């Protein structure tokens, strides 16, 4: 077992709110939420951060196109789209940071001033191809020839829009000085960047040598002013990366910073280099500890295309939750896609898994056990008799699943954690089929055996409710209530996950209640609409 009572600080990227969120954003939020809920319920000192990145040229242009100022535009999008996303997906984040908040802007100014004072920032000229969508200067190797209305033009390979040739007098972060230190970091801590494919990409990139990084802009004013030269604003990525420390006390609350930092960063692989190269170099320059880990998950693909509003593959999370519910959204994306790899989304696969795994697998198991306790024992949990080999097999399945799931969470593999827990669902369904409690109930001489079967099944459900609560918070809360567990054991969220596999916690005499369907039947006409 992993030791309890440790610090676990996890972050999502802070998202550009210049458009509404799609399921790719939801995927990242859910993954971070499941990991943080698990650690929190395991007893670790947990903090989960998400937020929005509101500065930069892209936000300014989008706001202008909508006849609004950038602050007004950001406020509207955050309140109408990004906060509701968290509510739609049952995200239990501890903090939401906006880069327009004073706590962040003050921290950015203090950080960049520190680097300037210590000689890590100098003035210089820069000319290059700039992608407004990425808010980044691009190498020619990162550009492709456009097609359609951009035929013959150089376009960004990610956004498929033309780049702009810019020449500016900027301030530069002397990132080139950190090439060797970064390579030493990757060598000494192989798990610093994961999965391995992401680590290999970063190592090969840094081995080519690093250039200094332009970190200011003077052609627009929507950003944090450079403290010693207010004609410039801080480059949006340099600004945004600092949210991970400004949110936990940098430049104002050293005790909180020491308690929370370093963090585990979840990022999409398209922003890996910012987090695994630029960000640790910035921290090294400031004399701060580098992150605990940078984990790059894969892309969600629809029809072979990366999820993207600009390419019309964006699907709003509520399009799924309105039909299947938030628990199904959370389960599907962590069950169907190996974390760290690209994964294809399809409505057909989602509907099939909902029916087979959630409704018929877990939901039907829970309703059958509650119904049999009500029918055969008046809704009161009986004391088990001597355990049979099958009973002991269920106990071992539960014990092993709890251990394996916790270890999977520790190595950032929530899909493996869900798979380990699901063995309990499968084994319990098979156990009930083999034991045939409906047949035992007809034979008075088998009353003791029926008690053992019902007690074993109920205790298995107790373990499932605890282990699945980070993934399926709504369904497990309903099951916990139906099991009558709260009066005897306390609130579901107070149950320690690393002790979930300990057997025999639900006491005999516990009274169960009616259980509403955990995953209701969905009208086929809705699915085919």
UniProtKB/TrEMBL annotation:
Residues 9-369 form the Methionyl/Leucyl tRNA synthetase domain. Its main location: cytoplasm. It comes from the Bacteria. It comes from Amnibacterium soli. It is found in: Cytoplasm. Its EC number is 6.1.1.10. InterPro entries: aa-tRNA-synth_I_CS (IPR001412), Anticodon_Met (IPR041872), Met-tRNA_synth (IPR014758), Met-tRNA_synth_2 (IPR023457), Methionyl/Leucyl_tRNA_Synth (IPR015413), MetRS_core (IPR033911), Rossmann-like_a/b/a_fold (IPR014729), tRNAsynth_Ia_anticodon-bd (IPR009080). Zn(2+) binds at residues 131, 134, 156, 159. A motif ('HIGH' region) lies at residues 15-25. GO terms for molecular function: ligase activity. Residues 382-525 form the Methionyl-tRNA synthetase anticodon-binding domain. Binds 1 zinc ion per subunit. The keyword Transmembrane does not apply. Monomer. Is required not only for elongation of protein synthesis but also for the initiation of all mRNA translation through initiator tRNA(fMet) aminoacylation. A motif ('KMSKS' region) lies at residues 306-310. Its cofactor is Zn(2+). Keywords: Aminoacyl-tRNA synthetase, ATP-binding, Cytoplasm, Ligase, Metal-binding, Nucleotide-binding, Protein biosynthesis, Zinc. The keyword Zinc applies. This is Methionine--tRNA ligase. Signal peptide: none annotated. It catalyses: tRNA(Met) + L-methionine + ATP = L-methionyl-tRNA(Met) + AMP + diphosphate. NCBIfam families: metG, PRK12267.1. Belongs to the class-I aminoacyl-tRNA synthetase family. MetG type 2A subfamily.
